[in-house]
Design brief:
This protein is mainly α and 192 residues long. The protein is built from ten helices and no strands.
């Protein structure tokens, strides 16, 4: 009979892993450190996750799904192109400044040797609204057709990541005015 896993312990394990990744980086994570930071025995950790890779994969999927739920909770494809763009852009920015530990983990995971094809497929599925919005704008002739959709995503996410990193590190304070200027600049950069 399978043992029922305590969600409180799983949350403690995930939180400990996030904290350690933020402090030490993903590659340096050791199961014994995670267990200690979570306040559980190392043997208990192995009841929940058979190895580091399984722990990291599960945490990645949890974070991506939660982020996607927050980002697209009130999003509708019936929004105008501009409304949809603004909703998604603001959502991504707010996500990045509100959940910096999660953003750091996801970024490191995506660039690590741990990433698997099925995880990349999951990541792609979670950005479908963004890709759909960009393709719709291109099809309607509002967005540039000389840029691939992937390049458009990179342009948008790159600016959002750097802006949120600078904000979170205290290098700049992103005011509402600055946020709006960045949003308008991103929109204009896509226009045909």
């Amino acid at each position: 009979m399978a043992r029922i896993k305590d969600t409180t312990k799983v949350d403690a394990i995930f939180n400990a892993t996030l904290k350690l990744v933020r402090e030490e980086g993903l590659v340096g994570i050791k199961m014994s450190k995670v267990a200690k930071a979570a306040g559980i025995a190392t043997g208990t950790l192995y009841i929940y996750f058979k190895n580091k890779e399984e722990l990291i994969d599960n945490l990645y999927l949890k974070l991506k799904r939660e982020s996607s739920e927050r980002l697209f909770k009130d999003y509708s494809e019936s929004m105008t192109l501009r409304q949809g763009f603004e909703y998604i852009w603001r959502g991504y920015f707010n996500e990045m400044i509100s959940h910096p530990a999660e953003v750091i983990f996801i970024e490191q995971y995506y660039r690590s040797p741990f990433v698997k094809e099925e995880m990349l497929a999951e990541r792609q599925a979670l950005v479908v609204p963004v890709v759909s919005l960009l393709r719709k704008g291109k099809k309607e002739g509002i967005f540039r057709n000389d840029l691939s959709t992937n390049l458009m995503v990179v342009m948008l996410i790159g600016v959002l990541k750097e802006l949120s990193r600078w904000h979170n590190s205290g290098r700049i304070k992103v005011s509402e005015e600055m946020k709006e200027k960045a949003l308008v600049s991103a929109w204009r950069g896509l226009l045909a």
